[in-house]
């Protein structure tokens, strides 16, 4: 624990044994397991947290404890849209064991917060705008007491008719002082009068996918002697969270400290400080540590989800299948608040034509407020929805023209030097054609054998009701793209410090390990550059310089780049005396396998001998080249770089029952450079599986704005039994020269591409249009052939 944290803990008579463990917890930071050999970039170095997670000692926020601990509970609205007439907290305050109750009247600073747009209240005061919106919070000496006290708060509502259809939101009464329209992007590229010989149209709907974190949100707030507070939670962007929290508390940012605990997986769900702000308010009010551990229902109600999207498309092509013009209308349902909707819309509009050459494009994109659950960052936001639609259009074109779907995609494949519909030239490697060819040419899986012993292969699983004669096999393709880092002028910067002392290296960087492998990468970078075997990655907190959010693969680029630069500066400090002694430059010395040698072999020594008790350190920053916002016509160099993926899905469909079994997913991906083969394969497989969930099962259903079945029984996640054989048939390593190490993000683009491929395969098996995700059974039912 830092000195400040220790002082605060002692002053409040707290004992935080689990917090102490954070000093060695990867994800916040960790050292290597002693039996692992030194390995640099390109090796499958095992994550340092493997042992702790296996043994159950890895410190997540839900595990934290402090002496004198109080428990928090939040009262949430049962209505999606209502006027609050009164809030009576007396019933809760009079309950034995209740220490504090807070509402909007008790927020000392800004009453609204927002990571991108400040429009979301800490507690609803006059209006409720979505089901589950926080109304009040309680601190009590027992978790059950806290829950009962929250339920005892009496709120009188005037229930209002919710606006749940985003198409009606344009003409509806304003749901928010900022209005219902969050952003409109009209993209104009080329000649509006251009037409093609072949025209296909389609209407597509994408459902509301939930991040469904493995562990629900949790946190611990500890008051400080200076009137500030420390919050221990699974934040993925601690510095932004700190600033938002401090503004709501009316405190200087320096008096709020966010300490990152272990993150039990994050695909966007860890970015809403709405769980953390009430926690700190209660700690400041009571002067005691306060803990919140959300139930699964609260998790579904409280965090943001993938934007449900309505898409209308018209594709024009010539007789050979080459695209002439794409017209589209894209409508994102932002839910009650803006959150990341503007950024998601920019990605959707910019990538609406996919990784294909399109001479003329006219796209209209809107993001609107409704009384549905809030939408926000979920891996591949914006890009995933349009991929499902434009790939559906490509299948329609192939069928209309009478050519193979893979061949149609090859004829239109984007490559380096081509221009996006935003007017931006693709300067990074774009091996789209190579990816398509790789999945097209990969061997297909064998057909299932006939016979009762293989009935488990049928759609519907073991003991399913289907008949083998009703099963049809389908093969479909999906090709997708995502942007790297932030977009539209986002200042992407990260800072890292590398310190070497007594032969041990320590990396200090506020990049949060969310499962993307940053802590392992940081260790590999230092091992590669310095030849030091033992490398520790420090726990993350806001006393460190900011590193930005853990989204869009940015930590591999900006934080990994900062670590590399700092390590190279330490390397120069290490080699400078030797180079001076032998009359040569440091560039003529190399470090490999823990040894330092000169180009001519005259010098040969070890890194440990050269260090010999020295303490060396350096701090460096990495900031990619700037981007710019899209202009009033959707034009501009808005993205730093792009990554691409192609997937071939093979499915078996029971065309009588509409049940679907994914047999195999063949993947080819543009990765720039493989930094850790095992870790990369895991990220791709996880992304494909998440995409299969979006394609077949995951849909957070609502009825007039009310979330139905907010639990993991009503919300069907794919399990290990649903995961097909995932074959990575090719990884194309064409290094992006402007990216550190030349690597590209790995996990988002499979999520974007997999749903489109599954939908295409179901189309192939059934002959049905399949224009809605997830695919409902009735959409996969077809008349048996013959």
Unreliable stretches (pLDDT < 50, length at least 5) are 1-36
What is the oligomeric state here?
Answer: single chain
- Major beta sheet, specifics? 7 strands, mixed
Structural class: alpha+beta
Q: Helicity level, as a percent range?
A: 10-25%
Helix segment tally: 17
Largest sheet strand order: 3-7-1-14-11-12-13
Region (Disordered): 1-52
Domain Aldehyde oxidase/xanthine dehydrogenase a/b hammerhead: 55-161
Pfam families: Ald_Xan_dh_C (PF01315), MoCoBD_1 (PF02738), MoCoBD_2 (PF20256)
Biased composition (Low complexity): 1-25
Describe this structure in words.
It is built from 17 helices and 31 strands. The strands form eight sheets. It has a seven-stranded mixed beta sheet, with helices on both faces. Strands 9-17-16-15-10-31 form a six-stranded mixed beta sheet. A four-stranded mixed beta sheet has the order 18-26-27-30, with helices on both faces. Helix 10 packs parallel to helix 17 and helix 16 (677-696) packs across helix 17 (748-766). The protein is globular, with a radius of gyration of 27 Å. Strand 16, helix 9 (341-350) and strand 17 (360-369) form a beta-alpha-beta unit. By secondary structure, the protein is of the alpha+beta class.
């Amino acid at each position: 624990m830092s000195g400040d944290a220790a002082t605060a803990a002692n002053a409040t008579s707290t004992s935080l044994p689990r917090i102490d463990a954070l000093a060695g917890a990867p994800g916040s930071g960790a050292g290597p397991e002693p039996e692992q050999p030194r390995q640099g970039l390109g090796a499958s170095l095992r994550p340092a947290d493997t042992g702790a997670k296996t043994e159950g000692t890895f410190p997540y926020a839900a595990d934290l404890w402090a002496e004198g601990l109080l428990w928090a509970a939040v009262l949430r609205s049962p209505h999606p849209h209502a006027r609050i007439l009164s809030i009576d907290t007396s019933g809760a305050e009079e309950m034995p064991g209740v220490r504090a109750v807070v509402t909007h009247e008790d927020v000392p600073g800004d009453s609204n917060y927002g990571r991108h747009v400040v429009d979301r209240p800490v507690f609803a005061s006059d209006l409720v705008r979505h089901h589950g919106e926080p109304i009040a919070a309680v601190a009590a000496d027992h978790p059950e007491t806290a829950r009962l006290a929250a339920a005892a708060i009496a709120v009188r509502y005037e229930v209002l008719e919710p606006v749940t259809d985003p198409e009606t939101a344009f003409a509806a009464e304003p749901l928010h002082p900022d209005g219902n329209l969050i952003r409109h992007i009209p993209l104009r590229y080329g000649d509006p009068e251009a037409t093609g010989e072949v025209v296909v149209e389609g209407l597509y709907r994408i459902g509301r996918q939930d991040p469904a974190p493995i562990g629900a949100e949790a946190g611990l707030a500890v008051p400080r002697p200076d009137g500030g507070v420390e919050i221990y939670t699974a934040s993925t962007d601690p510095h932004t969270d700190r600033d938002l929290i401090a503004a709501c508390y009316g405190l200087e940012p320096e008096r709020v400290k966010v300490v990152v605990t272990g993150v039990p997986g994050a695909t966007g769900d860890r970015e809403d400080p709405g769980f953390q702000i009430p926690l700190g308010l209660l700690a400041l009010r009571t002067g005691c540590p306060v803990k919140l551990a959300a139930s699964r229902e609260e998790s579904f109600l409280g965090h943001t989800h993938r934007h449900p999207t309505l898409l209308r498309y018209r594709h024009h092509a010539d007789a050979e299948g080459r695209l002439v013009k794409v017209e589209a209308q894209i409508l994102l349902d932002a839910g009650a608040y803006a959150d990341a909707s503007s950024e998601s819309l920019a990605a959707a509009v910019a990538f609406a034509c996919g990784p294909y050459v399109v001479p003329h494009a006219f796209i209209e994109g809107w993001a609107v407020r409704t009384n549905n659950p809030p939408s926000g960052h979920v891996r591949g936001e914006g890009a995933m929805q349009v991929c499902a639609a434009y790939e559906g259009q490509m299948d329609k074109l192939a069928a209309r023209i009478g050519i193979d779907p893979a061949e149609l995609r090859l004829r239109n494949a984007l490559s380096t030097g081509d221009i996006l519909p935003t007017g931006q030239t693709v300067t990074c490697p774009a091996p789209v054609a190579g990816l398509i060819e790789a999945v097209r040419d990969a061997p297909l899986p064998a057909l299932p054998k006939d016979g009762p012993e293989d009935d488990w292969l049928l759609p519907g699983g073991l003991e399913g009701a289907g008949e083998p004669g009703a099963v049809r096999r389908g093969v479909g393709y999906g090709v997708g793209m995502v942007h790297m880092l932030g977009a539209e002028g986002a200042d992407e910067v990260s800072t890292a410090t590398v310190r070497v002392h007594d032969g041990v290296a320590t990396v200090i960087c506020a990049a949060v390990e969310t499962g993307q492998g940053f802590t392992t990468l940081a260790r590999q970078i230092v091992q590669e550059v310095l030849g030091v075997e033992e490398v520790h990655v420090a726990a993350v907190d806001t006393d460190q310089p900011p590193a930005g959010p853990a989204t869009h693969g940015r930590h591999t680029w900006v934080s990994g780049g900062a670590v590399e630069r700092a390590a190279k500066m330490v390397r120069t400090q290490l080699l400078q005396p030797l180079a001076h002694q032998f009359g040569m430059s440091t560039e003529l010395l190399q470090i490999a396998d823990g040894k330092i040698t000169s180009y001519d072999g005259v010098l040969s020594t070890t890194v440990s001998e050269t260090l010999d008790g020295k303490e060396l350190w350096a701090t460096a920053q990495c900031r990619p080249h700037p981007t710019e916002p899209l202009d009033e016509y959707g034009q501009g160099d808005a993205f730093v770089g792009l990554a691409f993926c192609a997937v071939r899905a093979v499915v078996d469909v029971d065309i009588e029952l509409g049940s679907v079994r994914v047999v195999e997913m063949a993947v080819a991906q543009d990765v720039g450079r493989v930094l850790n083969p095992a870790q990369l394969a895991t990220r791709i497989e996880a992304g494909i599986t998440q995409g299969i969930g979006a394609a077949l099962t995951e849909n957070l259903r609502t009825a007039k704005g009310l979330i139905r079945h907010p639990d993991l029984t009503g919300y069907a996640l794919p399990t290990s039994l649903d995961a097909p054989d995932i074959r990575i048939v090719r990884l194309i390593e064409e290094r992006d020269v402007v990216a550190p190490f030349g690597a590209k993000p790995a996990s988002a683009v499979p999520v974007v591409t997999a749903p489109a491929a599954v939908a295409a395969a179901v189309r192939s098996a059934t002959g049905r249009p399949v224009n809605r995700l997830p695919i409902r059974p009735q959409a996969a039912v077809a008349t048996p052939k013959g």
